[in-house]
Each structure stands twice: as C-alpha cells, then as structure tokens.
Design a protein that fits this description.
Layout lengths: L1 H5 L2 H7 L12 H16 L4 H12 L4 H14 L3 H15 L4 H13 L3 H14 L4 H13 L3 H14 L4 H13 L3 H16 L3
Length: 202
C-alpha cells in the first residue's frame, strides 16, 4: 500500500486535469490501445499483469482516477506484484528498447517498488523516444517533488507546459512547487490558472 500512498497526489491532480477533448487530445491509436486493454481485463479481471497493463495505459491517456483504482485492485489480488512487474518489464524493454509504452510501464514498476531513480531514468527514456509526452514530464515532476528536489520538479513541469499550456494538472504541480519554495503569490497564481482552465472545460 505504500506506493499507493505515494501516488495519492495524483488523485488531487486528477480533479484539475484537462479535458482531453479540448486541450490534450488522445489519438485514435491510444483510443484503440485503451479499448484493447479494457477488453483484456474484462476477459480476465483477476490477472495482475493485465490489470497493470491497463493501469499504465490509463496513466498516459488522461484517466488518472481509473489508473489509481486499477493499481489498487492489483495490490489486493497480489501484493507482491510490484516486484514481479519489474522483472516482466525489464525483459520486455530489453527486447524492444524503442517502445516508449513499455518504458512507461517499467518506470511505474520501478516507482511502485520505491526505486525512484530508476523510475526517473525510464521516464527520461520515454522522453527521448517521445519528446512531447506531457504525462512523462508530469510524473517526473511528481517524483522529483517527492524526493525534495523542488527546483527540478518545477523545471520538469515548465517543460511540460511548454508543450501544452492548457494542461491544468501541470499548473497545479507548478503551484505546489512555488508553495514549497515559500512563494505563495506565484503558487496562488498557478493554482488559479489551474482552476480557470478547469472552469473553461480544460
């Protein structure tokens, strides 16, 4: 349950996240992938590997709450799966090193096992393959923030916002960074921007 507590901030972020139909847009390819993963889980809802696969697809298709719920189910079914996931995705990434989706999964497997530095490495590998992946920047910011490196967390957030200024979740992360640095005014402004975007349907 420890790794789920570490991800609880994502539940807050999700409340202010963007509307994928307006700002960040899910591609038809990702829509098909999500439907395939959901179908696989429907056929075998008690398989931890299938659930993990779906949870991570949720994480990069703007379905954060669904992803958290799915991760929670995995822990209930197999509390030791976080270690198994590392082995599964190390093997898969070794076989297909240029697949950013596999590296995203490996990053989450490392994160779930509290291997934050390895998770950071893999999210950076995602960005080498897919430089415009705003979700990779968001999760990098979250991890750096948890590690107490607020400056790097804010840098990652700003890089994500440079790709898409309308991602309300990134504005919320930047707001938290400002508050941690004692800059309440800019923290307030970023939080208001996140709320403004949400009110506009983003």
């Amino acid at each position: 349950m420890k790794y789920q507590r570490k991800l609880c901030l994502l539940l807050v972020v999700s409340l202010l996240t963007v509307n994928s139909a307006v700002a960040w847009k899910i591609t038809p390819e990702l829509e098909r992938e999500l439907a395939e993963k959901q179908s696989a889980v429907a056929k075998d809802p008690s398989d931890p590997a299938t659930l993990f696969d779906l949870a991570i697809t949720y994480s990069y298709t703007n379905h954060i709450i669904e992803g958290m719920d799915t991760l929670r189910k995995i822990h209930e079914i197999d509390p030791g799966f976080r270690q198994k996931a590392k082995l599964i995705y190390i093997r898969k990434v070794t076989q297909e090193p240029d697949d950013w989706r596999l590296r995203f999964r490996l990053a989450f497997a490392y994160y779930a096992a509290s291997d934050k530095k390895d998770a950071i490495r893999e999210l950076n590998n995602v960005l080498i393959i897919d430089p415009y992946n705003v979700w990779a920047y968001g999760y990098l910011a979250l991890i750096y923030g948890e590690m107490g490196d607020v400056d790097t967390a804010m840098e990652m957030t700003r890089k994500g916002l440079a790709i898409d200024r309308k991602v309300a979740a990134l504005h919320l992360l930047l707001s938290e960074g400002y508050y941690k640095k004692g800059d309440g005014w800019h923290g307030f402004l970023e939080r208001m921007e996140a709320l403004r975007l949400k009110a506009l349907g983003y």
